[in-house]
Amino acid sequence: MDLLERMAALRREGQSFALATVVGRRAPVSAHLGDHAIVLPDGRIEGFIGGACSHEIIRQQALGVLHARRGRLVSIRPDAGDVIESSAEHVVVPMSCASEGAVDVYVEPFVEARRLIVVGATPVAEALTRLARGMDYDVWRVVDAREQGDVTPAAASIGATVATLDALQTIIQEGSARHAEQAVVVASQGHYDEEALESILTSNVSYVGLVASRKRGAMVRALLDEHGVTGAASVRIPAGIDLGARTPAEVALSILAEIVQAHPSGAPALATASAAATPATPARDSAVDPVCGMPVTVATARHTADVDGDLYYFCCANCRTKFLQNPEQYRVHT
Questions:
Q1: Which pLDDT belongs to residue 79?
Q2: Are residues 251 and 127 in the same domain?
Q3: How is the chain split among helix, strand and coil, in percent rounded to 5?
Q4: Alpha carbon 186 to chain centroid distance?
Q5: What residues make up the domain containing 178?
Q6: Which stretches of the chain score pLDDT less than 50?
Q7: With contact defined as beta carbons under 8 Å apart, do 119 and 208 qualify?
Q8: 51: exposed, middle or buried (C-beta count within 10 Å: 0-12, 13-18, 19+)?
């Protein structure tokens, strides 16, 4: 019940997380069937799914699962190369610790709905809101304060949230703090395009589109450049895939199709089996274990070695021991 209560609390808070559950094992390993852990987007792990090697592997795989929004089975075993070829749904990773055991962990994402922010009180904005809500997006309508009363009844009837233009930057920042995937479409049709884009482009948003002709879009970009706003070149103008759309509903369809194309459900998934089995490229605060190749979080690394003034980080004591027995064998991999 503690697990269920913790998961329920995270869901109420709108917090994304991955649930890792041990579904198979071959002794000797420290994990048992049914052991589980919650992995948060910042890499923190709550629970137990095995020793040092499994712990770090599952952390990295869980972060990948959250990014892909799609579950995968992770098999950690000493004979990884001989057992089965990896795929995006079944990743096989070598067990680098001394144990000859093996463990299978299913990692499942629990992510909040993608957020779509639609700026403007226009027929295209209205059609896009309705279509996105039908696809379970968390939709925000952002309009001028004088337009709020006009769009609120229709938005409320389908579960969309309405906010005013001066709250746009705060809405995006709040979504970023919660690790929400966000897309923004500006469809005010000239009323406050530039003002909205100035706020949007100060934040990291996965998709930004402007409903405008190419000529009008070029003018908007030029004005943003004059104001010293960076990132104007990344705005999709005109927003949407060229489907020959004419009506507001068709334009809305083309825009949502482009958003899905850029970030489909389950993407960016690992494209090939070999990519699936390759550990993620470590972030700037991570290092690579020179023995097994696993990323190691520098701040929490328990196993390190200083050789000739160079500091090395290891996922477990066994990798550190192997390295110190013959550093030159492994230093080429750093």
A1: 72
A2: yes
A3: 40, 25, 35
A4: 23
A5: 115-262
A6: 266-284, 333-334
A7: no
A8: buried
